[in-house]
Automatic annotation (TrEMBL):
InterPro entries, sorted: Aldolase_TIM, HMGL, PYR_CT
Protein name per UniProt: Hydroxymethylglutaryl-CoA lyase
NCBIfam families per UniProt: PRK05692.1
Record family assignment: Belongs to the HMG-CoA lyase family.
An example molecular function term from Gene Ontology annotations: lyase activity
Amino acid sequence: MKNWPNAVTIKEVGPRDGLQNEKTVVSTEDKIAWINQLSRTGLKHIEITSFVNPKWIPPLADSLEVAQGIERVEGVTYSALVPNLRGLEGALKADLDEVAVFMSATEAHNKKNINKSIDETFPVLKETVDQALQAGKIVRGYLSTVFGCPYEGKTDVKQAVYVAQKLFDMGIHELSVGDTIGVANPAQVYEVLEELLKFVPAEKIAMHFHNTRGTALANVLASLDMGITTFDGALGGLGGCPYAPGASGNLATDDLLYMLHGMGISTGVDQGLMIESAKFIENRIGRPLPSHTLQTVRATCE
């Protein structure tokens, strides 16, 4: 308990990472309404969309309309994923606060996800980061398959650290460390963070867990022990990875809030408002979302 922080930052990625892999395409109007709800929950960071070619991620084809249509709330950082300079153009046109670049720690997943080798990806991202920084934007980096890959198995820690260092050298302000297929366990979390923390401070690392095997919250606890205070979550447990077969939803933000608040760790987020927002998007998706919190709410209502 001595290692647990007093406060944690939650970054909501549901509108992007959650909706990108849903079979039901949510209307532009409902996406905007949902993000507007999230903006009033106390969240300080919302990843709202992805400026990726619609051919690859059809559910987010309306990225510019969404980004331009939301109501901006003071104190909330609005972010979008961008793969390259073309994607950056859309984010700059929408005048978002932050952009996020992404790549994988493993060659096979990177080629499947980006259609480039790891070494081929570096110059593309460097050019994008440079242009974003010149435009006065904050740049976040996503590193996928840090703990395991659907094509290569367990990821070599040294390989993940190598790619992470390259991303920081480009000028990103924060790295989101991804358990893309939900295979990580607390021992792996300790192992990876021990290496990452040798060259970058804990405040520059965020953890991005998936709950495929039910270990996401255990991995959060391990991360807290290592001094990490920033976590990604998707409300209701939305999402997955289109290029990672079998990857189930992200760590549910509402479950994460329940655990943290019960531990006496502040987030600044209103859990009641988040549950109402979860019900809204669950209704629009048209299927029960997997978070334990929502299951409890449904059982209580019944």
